[in-house]
Design a protein that fits this description.
- The complex is a heterodimer of chains A (332) and B (527).
- Chain A has a domain at 58-258.
- Chain A has twelve helices and four strands; from the N terminus they run αααααβαββαααβααα.
- Chain A has helices at 10-41, 48-73, 81-96, 103-131, 136-155, 165-172, 180-198, 200-217, 222-248, 259-269, 281-301, 305-331; strands at 160-161, 174-175, 178-179, 250-251.
- In chain A, the strands form two sheets. A two-stranded antiparallel ribbon of chain A has the order 1-4. Chain A has a two-stranded antiparallel ribbon with strand order 2-3.
- In chain A, a hairpin with a 2-residue loop joins β2 and β3 (178-179).
- The longest helix of chain A is centred in the first third of the chain and has 32 residues, at 10-41.
- Helices cover 35% and strands 24% of the residues of chain B.
- In chain B, the strands form five sheets. Chain B has a six-stranded mixed sheet with strand order 6-7-8-3-9-10, with helices on both faces.
- In chain B, α8 links the parallel β7 (183-187) and β8.
- In chain B, α6 (135-148) packs across α7 (165-178) and α10 crosses α20 (509-517).
- The A-B interface holds A 1-2, 4, 6, 8-9, 12-13, 16, 198-201, 203-204, 206-207, 210-211, 213-221, 277-278, 330-331 and B 325, 327, 346-348, 350-352, 357, 359, 364-372, 375, 379-380, 382, 386, 389-391, 393-394, 397, 411-416, 419, 433.
């Protein structure tokens, strides 16, 4: 929130902002601790190459998690993002390998196709779950299957490859050692932050997550806001599909299995409440970093991938337990 | 009737050996408070074995709190309860049940997806030798329990969700009675029953009483008290005022005790000076979807007028307001705004036509507790603190400060969460939210619920000032002194119907209560 100039009840307000600081910084401190730990105990963690690696690895999860943040903030969940990403990738893969068009044309067409596919899936999730007030858990579980089936159907269960060279180049491009695709994700984070914190729409999403009825009775079209949140989540799945294709130079109908769970994990570790109304996309950014840094660092330390997965699980549980206490703390 | 006897065998034996009219429960100077609110402030009453004892009083007089204490839901702070000669201090509902105190609560406690038999046996499911559920025995017990109260037309295997409200109520009574009971407490059992079902219930109560069980009967319908009860205890403001034998009193006498205060003269001095303008909102046969009757409600609300709506809980007051504001669906009838026919499909439409609605429940409907005060104040008025969808925090803060100043809001910073405020100040934030829109009509449902006395007076003066400025106010309140202080006119609702209208010179709590309680059974059969 903006800076305050009120001087009433000075001590209370100081206490409050200190508390807010601990709340906000807590997750960032955890990330910092992880980075220091791995820097000290491994040789290569701080290598430029390794950092580039981490950034590349977290990009897709971060993009999905940004959209997921919108849905979780209104108290929903979207289990379909992994499948929707695969579906969008397959549709875009078909578009990009169309014969008889120029390189620029097929790339634009593919991007448009991926984004449209994500948009439609998200829109359906939102309209169906909001119109009938059904749990988004169930509706998006349905969409998870629909999108996966559609991806397999459209691709005839074949991986699509041989994309234009320019497209592949975009996937591996760097600016000062930072992958361009990561910058795309970062722009999305900033855009989401702006929408959530500076617009009426974003404010009302927080409002809906806290008290949907109060927002409705204040005269706002809650239905459309909820639909919009799911649609944004679908859109980010479409964008993630483009990044996925550019990075791997393939469109696989079995891509993205389980990605929804990683995206949810990033959002939750980032301190957004699963019951909605509380959290931030900056937290999501840090959450995605924590997952990425853990994955990378634990392997550098020499732990197996299985151990890495176990530890990530432990971190998710710790994050939720801490969040429980934080909510109680804040309620006092 | 044989089954009935069987089911109350133990009690019959008790009543055979015990002398008639023995005191089985004595409550002395019972006190209970929730935070700073005194719910019970000196309750004294006693129950004689085998009597039907009515508890009456206005909403919030303390009847429900007493029942919850007797049934072990809440502990009490001070005082004494003696049950059958022993000190009685139930720590949880099971302990109350073990002592033979059974309650059928106002809100249903049935598991709707299970069968009637399963519901009746839920506390002690019969088991076979192998520890499995003995379905046969369970159904047999349920059959016996239902027969005992004359519910032979209900199949015990039916799921509860297939039963009507009245049958559910009777199943609850059957469940309460199948364990051994000394005292059966019925909390507003007739609230949802038709006349025929009510008389059936009364017959059942007669049967229960004949077996020596003491029945405590909480009701809002005085005619029922006089039809079935032996004695009546009147509650007011958390105290018991009097216990009388039914033959020694009259309905008017009971209402007099419920009201107590003689405020009429004082009220007449406080007539607010303001002129009443043209009709702002007109209702013509306005009938909401949930109204059990076909004829709706008609009245005019004028600019500069404070129109109060009185009535008991369940009279359809909140539902009427929600219908007007476009929250709940409307079945028939018309609304006119400034003489123009209009229809509100959603709260948005009502708000666009200059109406604000301060809801009854500020925690669930009025405020976003975890969000800043400023965000709550701007919630209904986003357009004035934003441009092209972008928020201006400066404007928002200013708006909150201005609203806070006007309403004498006591707060730290506008960025503090609304939950940091006291009840009265939270209510002022809700008011500020609507006043930020400069509404032409303001609808308020229980505007001072959970608000302390000081803030109450401030809210009254704010509302009176609004009327002076020409705003039309429509206020629902369960507190009659509140309505009588504020209103220019009072409409009395009962059973979703307009039962009367009082102008300021006619205000008296007796008149309001008589209209609110009066002749409800006449219309009960129409469902």
């Amino acid at each position: 929130m903006a800076r305050q100039t009120d001087v009433l009840s000075e001590s209370r307000s100081n206490e409050f902002s200190l508390r807010a600081l601990i709340n906000k910084a807590g997750i960032g401190l955890a990330l910092l601790a992880l980075i220091i730990f791995f820097s000290v105990f491994t040789e290569h963690f701080l290598n430029a190459n390794n950092i580039t690696n981490i950034l590349t690895q977290i990009t897709i999860n971060l993009i999905l998690a940004v959209g997921m943040t919108f849905v979780i903030l209104i108290g929903g969940i979207d289990l379909s993002v992994g499948s929707v990403m695969a579906f969008a990738a397959v549709v875009a893969g078909k578009a990009i390998t169309l014969p008889g068009f120029g390189t620029t044309e097929v790339i634009l067409l593919a991007c448009l196709a991926a984004i449209t596919a994500g948009f439609v899936c998200g829109l359906l999730n939102g309209v169906i779950s909001s119109y009938w007030a059904l749990p988004s858990f169930i509706i998006t579980l349905g969409m998870l299957n629909i999108a996966r089936g559609a991806a397999l159907q459209v691709s005839e269960a074949q991986t699509i490859y041989s994309f234009p060279f320019a497209f592949e180049e975009f996937g591996s491009a760097m600016i000062y050692g930072i992958p361009v695709v990561f910058l795309v994700a970062l722009v999305l984070v900033l855009l989401a932050w702006f929408i959530l914190n500076r617009t009426v729409f974003g404010r009302l999403l927080y409002g809906i997550g806290n008290n949907e009825e109060a927002v409705r009775l204040a005269g706002h079209p809650v239905f459309w806001y909820k639909v919009a949140a799911f649609t944004i989540c679908g859109l980010t799945a479409g964008i993630a599909a483009i990044v996925y294709m550019a990075r791997l130079n393939i469109s696989s109908p079995i891509a993205g299995i389980g990605f929804e769970l990683n995206a949810i994990a990033a959002v939750i570790i980032g301190g957004t409440s699963l019951s909605g109304g509380r959290g931030s996309v900056i937290g999501t950014l840090i959450g995605a970093f924590i997952i990425g840094v853990l994955a990378n660092g634990l392997i550098l330390i020499g732990l197996s991938d299985f151990m890495r997965q176990m530890i990530t699980g432990v971190v998710i549980i710790i994050a939720v337990v801490l969040d429980h206490y934080r909510a109680k703390f804040a309620a006092k | 009737m044989a089954a009935l006897e069987q089911s109350f065998r133990t009690n019959t034996q008790n009543s055979a050996t015990a002398p008639k009219a023995e005191i089985i429960l004595a409550v002395t100077n019972l006190k209970k408070h929730f935070g700073g609110v005194k719910a019970l402030d000196g309750v004294n009453f006693s129950l004689k074995q085998g009597e039907v004892h009515a508890l009456v009083g206005e909403n919030g007089a303390g009847k429900s709190t007493l029942i919850k204490i007797l049934s072990g839901v809440f502990p009490f702070d001070a005082g004494e309860i003696i049950l059958s000669g022993n000190n009685y201090q139930p720590r949880h509902p099971q302990e109350a049940k073990a002592n033979g105190v059974q309650v059928v609560h106002q809100e249903f406690n049935l598991l709707t997806h299970l069968s009637v038999a399963e519901n009746i046996s839920i506390e002690a499911m019969p088991k076979t030798h192998f520890g499995l559920l003995d379905r046969k025995e369970m159904n047999r017990r349920a059959r016996r329990a239902l027969d005992a109260i004359g519910l032979s037309d209900v199949d015990v295997r039916t799921t509860v969700q297939n039963l009507g409200i009245a049958h559910r109520q009777l199943v609850e009574i059957a469940r309460a009675l199948q364990s051994e009971s000394q005292i059966l407490i019925l909390d507003e059992p007739t609230a949802t029953l038709t006349e025929r079902e009510t008389s059936r219930l009364f017959k059942i109560i007669e049967g229960i009483k004949a077996k020596g069980v003491t029945v405590v009967f909480v009701t809002h319908h005085l005619n029922e008290v006089f039809a079935t009860c032996d004695r009546v205890t009147v509650f007011r403001n958390g105290e018991t005022i009097i216990t009388e034998k039914i033959e020694d009193t009259t309905p008017e006498g009971v209402v007099g005790h419920m009201v107590g205060r003689k405020l009429a003269e004082e009220m007449n001095n406080a007539v607010p000076e303001h002129t009443v303008g043209s009709v702002a909102l007109k209702l013509k046969d306005f009938c909401i979807e949930d109204n059990p009757h076909n004829d709706g409600i008609s009245f005019d609300l004028r600019y500069g007028e404070i129109l109060g709506i009185a009535g008991l809980v369940g009279a359809g007051r909140t539902e009427l307001l929600r219908g007007i504001f476009g929250i709940d669906p409307v079945r028939s009838g018309k609304l006119e705004r400034d003489g123009q026919a209009i229809e509100f499909k959603a709260p948005r439409d009502a708000i666009a036509s200059g109406i604000g609605f301060v809801t009854e429940d500020r925690k669930d409907e009025g405020l976003i507790l975890d969000m800043p005060i400023a965000a709550n104040v701007s919630l209904a008025n986003m357009a004035s603190v934003s441009s092209k969808g972008l928020l201006s925090f400066t404007k928002e803060r200013l708006q909150a400060r201005r609203g806070g100043e006007k309403l004498k809001l006591k707060y730290g910073k506008t960025s503090d969460p609304a939950s940091s405020l006291s009840g009265g100040n939270q209510q002022k934030v809700v008011l500020a939210k609507w006043l930020a829109r400069n509404p032409k009509i303001l609808i308020l449902d229980e505007p001072t619920r959970g608000v302390d006395v000081g803030a109450k007076a401030e809210i009254y003066s704010i509302l009176k000032d609004l009327a002076k400025e020409g705003v039309a106010l429509l206020i629902v309140s369960s507190e009659m002194p509140e309505l009588m202080t504020l209103s220019d006119r009072i409409l009395v609702l009962a059973d979703h119907q307009l039962r009367g209208e009082l102008s300021r010179s006619e205000f008296s709590e007796e008149k309001i209560l008589q209209m609110a309680y009066g002749q409800t059974t006449d219309t009960k059969g129409i469902h």
